[in-house]
Design goal:
By secondary structure, the protein is mainly α. It has a single domain (2-217), classed as Up-down Bundle (Methane Monooxygenase Hydroxylase, Chain G, domain 1). It has helices spanning 2-33, 36-68, 72-106, 115-137, 141-165, 172-213, 219-231. Helix 1 (2-33) runs parallel beside helix 3 and helix 3 packs antiparallel against helix 6.
Length: 232
């Protein structure tokens, strides 16, 4: 019965992460391609569903813990999903802010998007997919890739700020809004990095829990056992 409930929690959480990934694609790509309908869909349809889903995930996790009192390994997994869910909630607010900024630009005279914005956007979406996949699968080989992407993003972001400040001087408010979008992108990457760190902690906890449940045999006892087996 508990395993069925845990399976339901995992499946719900997986659907939740997929929904957020889809909204991120819609928001960022809609911003880049100036697709007003797509941005409105993120704000009016995706975002309210995600907000509701965040609450349901927390409720499912808490209900599972209180009803079944799971063992260390399973408990760590459920608690880690709750921690990641709180970060995904913040992430969804950042995604909504990008959509709001995109809609704002429809009301303004055309403004040039720096080339870095496109590169940063692509990197964000790839980074998000990697981080969520890393969390769900605990694949340690992704950790270095995510760190490298973060370093590359930082260099791009710095260049973007220099370029945007030195251009479009006649459009102060739109430029400020575009800089704000850059900082939102940076916040999203930072949240992804924290999700990655949570996955590392989860992996270490699972290893400790497994070692506690199956302790390694004492080397001294092993030597005595070997001695007795030789005598017999």
């Amino acid at each position: 019965m508990f395993q069925e409930k845990l399976s339901l929690v995992k499946q719900s959480f997986l659907s939740h992460t997929n929904r957020i990934e889809k909204a991120a694609h819609g928001s960022i790509e809609g911003f880049l391609n100036r697709e007003k309908d797509r941005l409105h869909h993120v704000l009016d349809v995706d975002f309210p569903v995600i907000a509701l889903s965040c609450g349901l995930i927390d409720e499912l996790c808490m209900n599972t813990i209180s009803c079944y009192q799971p063992k260390a390994g399973d408990l760590n997994e459920i608690l880690s999903m709750m921690v990641m869910n709180s970060k995904l909630k913040i992430l969804s607010f950042q995604i909504a802010k990008v959509a709001e900024a995109g809609i704002y630009f429809f009301t303004q005279p055309p403004i040039f998007y720096p080339r870095e914005i496109s590169s940063m956007s692509t990197l964000i979406l790839k980074n998000m997919e990697l981080c969520i996949s890393f969390f769900l699968n605990c694949r340690s080989d992704m950790k270095e890739i995510i760190r490298e992407q973060r370093d590359y993003f930082s260099a791009l972001f710095e260049k973007f700020l220099k370029d945007i400040v030195s251009s479009e001087k006649g459009q102060i408010e739109p430029v400020c809004r575009l800089v704000q979008v850059g900082f939102i992108f940076d916040r999203i990457i930072e949240l992804n990095q924290r999700i990655c760190q949570d996955a590392c902690l989860l992996q270490k906890r699972d290893e400790k829990a497994m070692n506690a449940e199956n302790p390694a045999p004492d080397s001294h006892l092993e030597g005595i056992t070997a001695l007795f087996s030789e005598e017999t």
